[in-house]
Amino acid sequence: FKALFALAWPLVLAQLAQNALFTSDVIMMGWLGPKYLAGGALATAFLNMFLIGSIGLVGVVAPMVAQALGARDLRSVQRTLRTGFWVVIVISAVLIPVVWQVKPILLALGQNPEATDLAQDFVHHAAWLFLPALGIIVLRSFLSAHGVTRPILVITIFGVFINAGLNYCFMLGNFGFPRLELKGSGTVTATVNLIMFLMMLGYIVWHRRYRRYNMFGNFFNIDWARLREIFRIGTPIGLTVMAEVGLFSAAAILMGLLGTDEVAAHAVALQITSMAFMVPLGLSMATTVRVGLAYGGGSREGIRKAGWSSIGMTFVFESITCTIFLLFPL
C-alpha cells in the first residue's frame, strides 16, 4: 500500500493538473460566449475520443518498461522506449488526417453549422498535439517505471499556468495580442503539449541516471517485433478506452441536436465530473508500473498486493466522491 501510494500521488495530481488544462480552456471559451463554448465542447469531445484511445494504446509502454526493469534487462528498456516513439509516429500519421475531417463528420451527425465551423477552427489547430502529447506518455511511462514521478507533476503544473496565460493572450486577445478565439486555443493546446514534451525529454536526456539508456541510439533501426507487440497488446486497450470515452462524446453530440446552449451547459457539467475520474486514472498508472515490476521480478505476491491495494484505494475515493455529488448536486 505504501509503495503504491508513494508512486501514485504525484501521478494523481499530474492527472488532475492535466485535466485542469482542459478546464481552463472551457472557462475561457465560456468567456467568449455560449456559441464558442458549444463549438469548443464539440471539438474536444471529438478530438479526445481519438487522443485518449491513443493514450490507452501507447500506455502499454509503462508495464513493458517496468517488466524489463524488474528483470534488470536495461537493453530491453531502451528498445521499448525507442519503439514507443515509433508507435507515436505511426498513430499520429494515421489519426491527424482523420480528425482533420471534423467538419463533414459533425455535419453528418446533425450538428449546428456555426458550432461545427468553430469546432473545426479548434481541431485544425490542435490536431498537431498528437505527436507531443503521445510522446509525453512514452516519457512519463519511462519515468514512472523508475519510480520518478515528481518531475511529471512539476512539468504538468507548469503547463497548466502556461496554457492559461497563452489562452488569455491569444484566445481572448489581451495585452495587445491578436484575438484568435478557438483558433488561438487550438494552437495554444498543441504548443503547450510540445513545451511539456521538450521539458520532460530534456530532463531525461540531461539526467546522469538515464544517460546509460542512450534513448535515441540507433533510432532508425526499428525493432519490428517489439512494434508489433506494442500494437498487439495496446490496440484492444486503446479501443476499449476509446469506446468508453466515446460514450461521453456521443452525449455531447446528442446535446448538439438539442441546441447550442445545451452543448455549452453539458461541457461545464462534464468538466466538473471528469475531475473525479482523474484519481483512479492516476492510480491505474501507478498500479500498472507496480504490477510490471513485480511480474518482471517474478513476484506473484507483489502482483496481488499491487492489484488489491489499487482496488481498495479506488473504492474508498469514489465512494467519497459519489457521496459529495449526491449531497451537493450541480
From TrEMBL:
TM ranges: 43-71, 83-102, 122-143, 152-173, 185-206, 236-258, 264-286, 307-328
Recorded GO cellular component terms are: plasma membrane
MF annotations from Gene Ontology: antiporter activity; xenobiotic transmembrane transporter activity
Q: What Pfam families is this protein classified in?
A: MatE
InterPro entries (alphabetical): MATE_fam, MATE_MdtK
Which keywords are on file for this protein?
Answer: Membrane, Transmembrane, Transmembrane helix, Transport
Q: What is this protein called?
A: Uncharacterized protein
